[in-house]
Write a structure and sequence with these properties.
The structure is a homodimer. The first copy, chain A, contains 15 helices and 16 strands. The longest helix of chain A is centred in the first third of the chain and has 19 residues, at about 15-35. Helices cover about 45% and strands about 20% of the residues of chain A. The first copy, chain A, has about 425 residues and is an alpha/beta fold. Chain A folds into two domains: about 15-230, Aldehyde Dehydrogenase, Chain A, domain 1 (3-Layer(aba) Sandwich), CATH 3.40.605.10; about 245-385, Aldehyde Dehydrogenase, Chain A, domain 2 (3-Layer(aba) Sandwich), CATH 3.40.309.10. The first copy, chain A, has helices at about 15-35, 40-55, 55-75, 80-85, 90-100, 140-155, 165-185, 200-205, 220-230, 255-265, 280-295, 305-310, 320-325, 340-350, 365-370; strands spanning about 110-115, 120-130, 130-135, 155-160, 190-195, 215, 245, 275-280, 300-305, 315, 330-335, 355-360, 375-380, 400, 410, 415-430. Chains A and B meet through strand 2, helix 10, helix 15, strand 13 and strand 16 of A and strand 2, helix 10, helix 15, strand 13 and strand 16 of B. Strand 16 (about 415-430) of chain A pairs parallel with strand 13 of chain B. Chains A, B: It catalyses: L-glutamate 5-semialdehyde + phosphate + NADP(+) = L-glutamyl 5-phosphate + NADPH + H(+). Chains A, B: This is Gamma-glutamyl phosphate reductase. Chains A, B: It holds the Pfam family Aldedh.
Chain lengths: ~425, ~425
């Protein structure tokens, strides 16, 4: 049986405000059920989701082919088309990721702190779900399942705007998830897509303060900027990474070579890959040839400032734009700085405050770097690739927060919760 | 010597964009100094602030008289004029409050969590200041000093928009604070007022994402709504309290009388005072006469629904508006409900999610109330007046957050901080 036999609304047309807000009301009601659902019930639903995805793999791949065909007609880039693609193997990977979430501790109900006041009143702050979590993203059908599963485990209803490019795929994925929710005895409205409401639906979602408790944008810098600027709903920004490594005067050569290569080459397309290398002038002649030589051998294009170019000529000249760029490719900007002050000033100007690392054997400089660099993750003598929820031991990765409110750095399931205070008394009044 | 001998700009005129953003840049530079200032330096500055306020009490009161005279001309309400007034005694109180903050633990540098990974990389999440904290408020000069002192202790620079009604008073207060900062060797720009930039300054402040790290609105529901709607800077909403108490069927009469009277009468003008009483139908005849009788004796006007009015006629009929109103006065709305479901449904519809309390001896109903009521603080058998930073043992009260992101319920100094991750390795790379 097709999961989409009875679509509840036409995929295009004028914005139906009543239907949109009725959907959000349904999400709120579902969120109330999820908030008090125990971990076993939520885990059973996740297992059912994985099962339904695999049971409907043909339908998912067929819907995805329609999206891909339309995407090619519309001239989507090969990178976007690749992210949009779901093969049977990728559906298996998505289902496996859902099962991984089953094994992670449920944050809901965790006691964060508590005390008994002198008058006998007991206070306890416990984790509770946000309620309704919205997500706005682009052309990434795996995010549909990923966010739905993370929201479900943390007791939140999810309202998803996955974008027109993946609309058919997302519709089938959400239908599979909703079928699984029904089997597990949880409300189907726990996970909804609002793609059928088009762009207007996305902008109404951003203004639905009070109905939507949290909004998570995922995708291009432009999409994140739009959501941050236009939302009245609280947003968690998972931003770009213009990540820096500083080679201090005292840096060990072997660590410098290993860490910079690992940070650039192991997976260049992700946000924790290094984009700019800053080298102390007194160490440039010693360190640049082995470090950049290893990178060139791995196929990295070096964008060097004048002083670095003089030491390592197998490079292209860097421009102002290079310092601002998140390459996400085998490219690295390199600059020689006079001292740690200049390195920190460069980072202040160009960093997106994601991750920065210094390679040094100078304790004072290490301490200064840790204290003065205002990024989510600041490292000494380690690869920037460690900024990752799985590496940090969180089990699941909701994203890397580059903002300061609520969550900073890798976010696990607890970051998808709020708290409330439970106060238990026996007739106490305030004196 | 007058603190305002050399005002740096005329108090009115066209918006000077360059001067405004230069001030924000100065705040950012000051924030960097404050971020690494130790507790002793910050406490010394707070002591100097208290000293300077008392040394300039005549000048403060004189400036305040000008604001009050203009306020009377402009027809400000007596409530607003009272909040605007600074007498020598009130200045003493404000200075004492600053000294209280000296005694509170500095949240900056606190280790929140940490672990050593199997590969030897050590992770530590520590509290760091936000950076630049903005505040937008109205006609409350005490908030100027209050926010400045809390920001200073937590290592944040403060940019204050205190509104035109208190502009002269705030200018003198900020000048006194800046003089104290100078004496203590901290940057004067750590605390600034942007009142001279007028309304345009306030709206630029709300859009200064990246330059301002956090915005705290304080004042009327309308002001808070404006800030929440128009800001791109992250906001912490310290909202209104339409606070409920539920008298369950099994409620003890003495607790019901004591708690409702305490919650309404002890200080009716604050956000944790009760505004609506919901009574189980089966207990209304037993409980309403003693509870409402005690309130009438204390001068409370009862706004009763039809069923409550039939039991306790010494009341005025309640209208729909009563359920939505934060009276902040000796008024209480009273409604008889059929059961706990109806009470919880009423709270969901009308509560501002600040604080709700149930008086009951039924364990199942207590647990349901704690689990199903989605407010910052949910109580059993205790007065709603306990929702307070000082009562919770936080030492200082930044406000009561009614939002779910970052902070919920009473906020202490730690809620004015973010965190960052310090990662210490010895050459580790990701495998």
């Amino acid at each position: 049986m097709s999961l989409l036999e009875n679509p509840t609304a036409p995929p295009t047309g004028d914005f139906d405000s009543a239907a949109f807000y009725a959907d959000l009301d349904e999400a709120k009601r579902a969120a109330r059920v999820l908030a008090t659902a125990n971990s076993s019930a939520k885990d059973a639903a996740l297992e059912a989701v994985a099962h339904e995805l695999l049971a409907h793999v043909d339908e998912i791949v067929a819907a995805n082919r329609e999206d891909l065909a339309r995407g090619r007609e519309n001239g989507l880039s090969s990178g976007l088309l690749d992210r949009l693609t779901l093969t049977p193997e990728r559906v298996q990977g998505v289902a496996d990721a859902v099962l991984d979430i089953v094994g992670i501790a449920d944050p809901v109900g965790e006691s964060v702190r508590g005390r008994t006041l002198p008058n006998g009143v007991h206070l306890e702050e416990v984790r509770v779900p946000f309620g309704v979590v919205g997500a706005i993203y682009e052309a990434r059908p795996n995010v549909t399942v990923d966010i739905a599963a993370l929201a479900l485990k943390s007791g939140n209803a999810a309202v998803l705007r996955g974008g027109s490019a993946a609309e058919r795929t997302n519709a089938v994925l959400v239908a599979a998830i909703q079928a699984a929710l029904g089997q597990a005895g949880l409300p189907a409205a726990s996970v909804q897509t609002i793609d059928r409401f088009g762009r207007r639906g996305a902008s109404e979602l951003m203004r639905a303060r009070g109905r939507v408790d949290l909004l998570v944008p995922r995708g291009s810098a432009q999409l994140i900027q739009t959501v941050v600027t236009e939302s009245t709903v609280p947003v968690i920004e998972t931003g770009a990474g213009v990540v820096h490594i500083v080679l201090d005067q005292s840096a060990r050569e072997d660590w410098a070579v290993d860490i910079v290569r690992n940070a650039k080459v192991q997976r260049p397309s992700v946000c924790n890959a290094v984009e700019t290398l800053l080298v102390h002038a007194d160490a440039a002649t010693r360190l640049l040839p082995p470090v950049l030589g290893a990178l060139r051998a791995a196929g990295v294009t070096i964008h060097a400032d004048e002083r670095a170019l003089a030491i390592f000529p197998d490079a292209v000249p860097a421009t102002e734009e290079d310092w601002e760029t998140e390459y996400m490719s085998l490219d690295l900007a390199v600059r020689v700085v006079d001292d740690l002050d200049e390195a920190i000033a460069h980072i202040r100007r160009y960093s997106t405050s994601h991750t920065e690392s210094i390679i040094t054997n100078d304790l004072g400089n290490a301490d200064r770097f840790l204290a003065e660099v205002d990024s989510a993750v600041v490292m000494v003598n380690a690869s920037t690739r460690f900024t990752d929820g799985a590496e940090f031991g969180f089990g699941a990765e909701v994203g890397i927060s580059t903002q300061k409110l609520h969550a900073r750095g890798p976010m696990g399931l607890p970051e998808l919760t709020s708290t409330k205070w439970l106060v238990r008394g026996s007739g106490q009044i305030r004196r």
